[in-house]
Amino acid sequence: MTFSLGIVGAGQFSGRFARLFLAHPGVSDVYVTDLIPERAEGLAAAEGLAGTFPDYEAMLESAAVDAVAIFTQRWTHGPLVLQGLAAGKHVYSTVPMAISAQEIAEIIDAVRATGLTYMMGETSHYHPATVHARDRIAEGAFGRVFYAEGDYVHDMDLGFYDAYRHSGGEEWRSTASYPPMLYPTHSVGGVLGAWRTHAVSVSAIGVVDERGDEVFDRSVSRF
Predict the structure, then answer these.
(1) Cα gap 80→76, rounded to integer Å
(2) pLDDT greater than 80 at residue 154
């Protein structure tokens, strides 16, 4: 039995997943929608997708789509996930799941109420090292696990500013400052993906921005 999938957001990231979805034997048709119709049409043509929808609402209303995969801006995931579940669709989203504890709780409640599936695609969970550690911990090979560390670094000079300009337009600086602690999933995903535990408290130490490019200026950043 297969199911159909609707991709939400045709930016730089979703094309790679479109190819993977199409290659999966459990997925039949793949559709796409984007706020910029030309991007959706371009992705559909480039990857041979089944078609496009004019907007997210039209996709959710369509009986041709069984599930949606959200590849939009990071701070939009929570509301879009809830909207998808309310429409009776299974939902996959890239990280983060949401940007507030309230949004996360609402998603959990919606999944319980609807019986639908929500998945956050945390890549660190599937890294070979994480998979190996997860298997070995489950076997008891590491003995009592009581401490672990995880690190993840994004060098903003290696293409990220270009990506922000692509997605943010003239106002890209206002969202390029998205706070790391609203997006900690890659750094903690390896540890929590291997070790079946959870965090009970969180703290953060920041550094003063010295780049002088206005990205982290309070008068510019929406965060």
Answers:
(1) 6
(2) no
